[in-house]
Amino acid sequence: MPAAWAKWHDHIGEIIVVCKFYRNFFPVHLTELVTAIGIAGLLLSALPIGGSAGAIAETLLGAAPAPANLQRLEPDTVGAHLPSTLQPSFPFPKHAYIVADSVVLGAESAIRQGLSDWRIELDGRPALTLRAATEDIRERRQSLPAVVIVAVGYNSLWEKERKNFKRWAERFDKEAEILLAEVQKRGARKVVWVLLRELTLDLVPKGHKDEFERSWYFPYVNERLKNLRERHPELVLADWATIGAQQGITYDFIHLNTKGGRLMLELLKSAIGR
């Protein structure tokens, strides 16, 4: 098979898998719309930045819990890993930029109220990927304030039971490095990245227990973000994996209710040092 055709063959495989998944969760009359959106998005984002086509992902949101033998890293305390010589000195101007998917977008009201003396700029949308976040920043932002909060990672591709994990981890790492470099190039001096929520079944509200099985890859993302911090000690991790391990803060398995929004606000205030 010619190389060009082989490349698109891989992408088509990803598209088929994702569309099959979404067909299980949407009514028939929405299937065509979701499929079209999935095709357009994957054609734009399936290629690793600067690389060749990757392996076919089994799913975006899976149906099996994370394997029991997954290596768990000890949770970080927000900001505690930074040596004093790397702790950014305040006062920075009270101005922060947030790029987020639907999880932290759900805390927007709480963030604006709780940081009312700050200028908050928030870019984001549901299903935002790392690659799309980078592209949005390149297109919309000539410069950024000193404080930047990154809250993306839920919308990333992995395979169950760590199959082809090295390949997908390298793809995630590369996109994370590029996103971090992009915000730093545009003026960020303190970058906070929000970890994903890691679930146990008791944390999921009644009526949404089936969604627990869609969270199997969240520890994979957090593992890669902790490795990113090891390479960049100036990066601060906002430990939502630990702080978010309580009941009654979401209306489904990850999206924040009012109480969860206030809790996210307190986490972000701690992470930026306010």
Largest sheet: 5 strands, parallel
**Average of pLDDT:** 78
Radius of gyration (Å)? 19 Å
Secondary-structure element series? HHEHHEHEHEHEHH
Give a quick summary of the entry.
By secondary structure, the protein is an alpha/beta fold. The protein has 9 helices and 5 strands; from the N terminus they run H-H-E-H-H-E-H-E-H-E-H-E-H-H. 35% of the residues are buried.
Main traits of this protein?
alpha/beta, 5-stranded parallel β-sheet, 42% helix, disordered N terminus
Question: What does this molecule look like?
Answer:
This protein is an alpha/beta fold and 274 residues long. The protein has nine helices and five strands; from the N terminus they run ααβααβαβαβαβαα. It has a five-stranded parallel beta sheet, with helices on both faces. α4 (108-114) packs across α9 and α6 (165-185) crosses α7 (218-231). The protein is globular, with a radius of gyration of 19 Å. The termini are far apart.
Which helices and strands occur, and which strands form pairs?
Blueprint: H1 3-23, H2 28-45, E1 95-100, H3 102-105, H4 108-114, E2 119-124, H5 130-140, E3 147-151, H6 165-185, E4 190-194, H7 218-231, E5 236-238, H8 240-243, H9 258-272
Parallel strand pairs: 1-2, 1-3, 3-4, 4-5
